[in-house]
Design brief:
Keywords: FAD, Flavoprotein, Monooxygenase, Oxidoreductase. Its cofactor is FAD. By secondary structure, this protein is an alpha+beta fold. It has three domains: 3-61 and 104-177 and 273-341, FAD/NAD(P)-binding domain, CATH 3.50.50; 69-103 and 181-271 and 355-391, D-Amino Acid Oxidase, Chain A, domain 2 (2-Layer Sandwich), CATH 3.30.9.10; 401-501, Glutaredoxin. It is 31% helix and 28% strand. The protein has helices spanning 13-24, 49-54, 61-67, 88-92, 106-118, 168-173, 248-252, 298-317, 327-352, 356-375, 377-387, 442-451, 462-466, 492-501; strands at residues 3-9, 29-32, 46-47, 69-71, 73-78, 81-87, 101-103, 129-136, 139-145, 151-161, 179-194, 202-205, 212-216, 222-229, 256-272, 277-278, 281-283, 289-290, 401-404, 407-408, 433-437, 455-458, 473-477, 483-488. The strands form four sheets. The chain has an eight-stranded mixed beta sheet with strand order 6-5-12-13-14-11-15-18. Strands 1, 2, 8, 9, 10, 16 and 17 form a seven-stranded mixed beta sheet that branches. Strands 20-19-24-23-21-22 form a six-stranded mixed beta sheet, covered by helices on one side. It is globular. The two termini are 30 Å apart.
Length: 507
């Protein structure tokens, strides 16, 4: 128990996904958490389409879809009326197998991840706290306080800090966490209720009153309310009860509360770590970046961190790559986190800003513009692709090379389906693989067969062209299913050069 390949600090969704992915690849992990038990409240709710796509690699997607709630549309309200309705199913159809926002509360999510991890013989060690650690060229030595109060030394090749915004790992590394805290105080409440906003869709009130969003939960008449606390009530949020928050926005959305099952208040931070790791220790999830809840991006981004780092750690530990591969984790994920914080800041400031001008923008300009924007197919598609994270890419980064059609190295492979078969089916494999759309050369077929690298050749179809793929395009895919290399008629020499130049062995 005192020696492992990767020691993971923190057993939220980020740490659990990292542990699960590594375990599936045969890496020995140890995951600890200082809490006594998993969370019992539904903190993060939304699972975006890109996360559901990636979860196919962990055989999680069907279980999550079966247990959660699909949100078919978002509704924006102004002055007690619906100003715009955005149907996810119509917007996202053709882009992803999962054209919807999926609600799956974090407590259920963690429970599923823990159960799957136990299939690999790995249990979360509760009441176990990281006290400190040191590292050198040979590995990491961590000091732990166990559930019985005794201290223990654990040795690992690598350490992953998935321990939240107050990360001990980040503090030990001495990495700065610049940013700030929004002035607004938020409340969150899980309720039973009634009214037009309890129809299973997402509803957001944009008004001069308090901001309010109603997220549907599984089951009739259940919802999560997220709203702002303004005026003098925000000075002592710890003393607030649900009865103390303003009812104006609820009245605008015609929300009728029957029972409050959970209530809490919090302030929102916006920060990104100056580095995402140092030597053999890494930061993931809230330990590396925190931002506003606008768009339901937080948990999904942490899960993306875990998937990005997991295959790279496994490759290095199994001798399939040099440790320079691990440098690409920060390069790829930090850039996305910075963009995300900037984007969610803008959205957050729009929906929560005080003052006459801000109110005019939300109550006068927004009602006029939103229906017109929502009527534009291109605008709806842009919004869905952005929020669902399917546009997240690693273009122009060290592992990303070339282009074929409209697809560049570093991008997510476009999804194409004829209703029976789709080109994402093979992406459930946790390995390097090649897809060709059109004809594959005999030398490429032989090269892949010799190395045991999966090769799928798709007969060229107009649907491929419509998706942005190119005839006879060769797409080398990373173990996390992102495109590593894209080139028309690429042969064995091109692939060999790609791997050798980066110290990789993809087979």
């Amino acid at each position: 128990m005192n020696r492992c390949d990767v020691l993971i600090i923190g057993a939220g969704p980020t740490g659990l996904v990292l542990a699960l992915w590594l375990s599936k690849l045969g890496i020995k992990v140890r995951i600890i958490d200082k809490t006594a038990a998993p969370g019992t409240t539904s903190r993060a709710l939304a699972i975006q389409a890109r996360t559901l796509e990636l979860y196919r690699q962990l055989d999680l997607t069907e279980a999550i879809i079966g247990q959660g709630h699909q949100v078919p549309a978002a509704n924006l309200w102004v002055k007690g009326k619906t100003a715009a309705r955005l149907p996810f199913s119509a917007i996202g159809a053709g882009f992803t197998p999962y054209p919807f926002l999926h609600i799956y509360p974090q407590d259920q999510h963690e429970k599923l991840l823990i159960e799957r991890l136990q299939h690999f013989g790995v249990d979360v060690e509760r009441h176990t706290e990281l006290l400190g650690f040191s590292q050198d060229s040979g590995g990491v030595t961590a000091r732990l306080r166990l559930a019985d109060g005794l201290e223990e030394v654990c040795e690992a090749d690598y350490l992953a800090g998935c321990d939240g915004a107050r990360s001990t790992v980040r503090k030990v590394l001495g990495i700065g966490f610049p940013g700030g805290t929004y002035e607004q105080v938020f409340y969150v409440a899980d309720v039973d209720g009634a009214g037009p906003a309890f129809n299973g869709e997402l509803h957001v009130d944009l008004d001069e009153a308090d901001f309010l969003a109603v997220f549907p939960l599984a089951g009739s008449g259940r919802a999560r309310l997220i709203g702002t606390v303004r005026d003098e009530r925000a000075e002592h949020p710890q003393n607030l009860r649900f009865e103390d928050v303003s009812q104006r926005a609820m009245e605008h959305l015609k929300v009728e509360i029957k029972q409050v099952n959970w209530f809490s208040t919090y302030r929102v931070h916006h920060r990104v770590a100056e580095q995402f790791g140092r030597e053999r220790a890494f930061l993931l999830g809230d330990a590396a970046h925190v931002h506003s809840p606008a768009g339901g991006q937080g948990m999904n981004t942490g899960i993306g961190d875990a998937i990005n780092l997991a295959w790279k750690l496994a490759a290095v530990l199994q001798g399939q790559a040099t440790d320079t591969l691990l440098d690409t984790y920060e390069i790829e994920r930090s850039a996305f986190a910075q963009r995300l914080v900037s984007t969610t800041d803008q959205v957050f400031n729009f929906i929560t800003a005080d003052g006459r001008l801000a109110a005019l923008l939300r109550t006068r300009l927004a009602p006029m513009l939103l229906p017109r924007v929502a009527a534009l197919k291109s605008a709806r598609e842009f919004l869905f692709r952005t929020v669902s994270q399917i546009t997240l890419n690693y273009r122009d980064m060290p592992l990303s090379v070339g282009s074929a059609g409209q697809v560049h190295g570093g991008e997510r492979l476009p999804w194409v389906s004829d209703g029976k078969h789709d080109n994402f089916a093979g992406l459930a494999r946790l390995c390097w693989q090649v897809q060709v759309y059109g004809a594959a050369s005999g030398s490429l077929v032989a090269w892949c067969a010799e190395r045991g690298m999966p090769l799928e050749v798709f007969e060229w179809h107009e649907a491929h062209e419509a998706a942005g793929l190119q005839q006879d395009g060769v797409y080398l895919l990373r173990p996390d299913s992102y495109v590593a290399l894209a080139q028309v008629d690429a042969g064995p020499e091109v692939l060999e050069d790609y791997f050798s130049a980066r110290g990789l062995r993809g087979y």
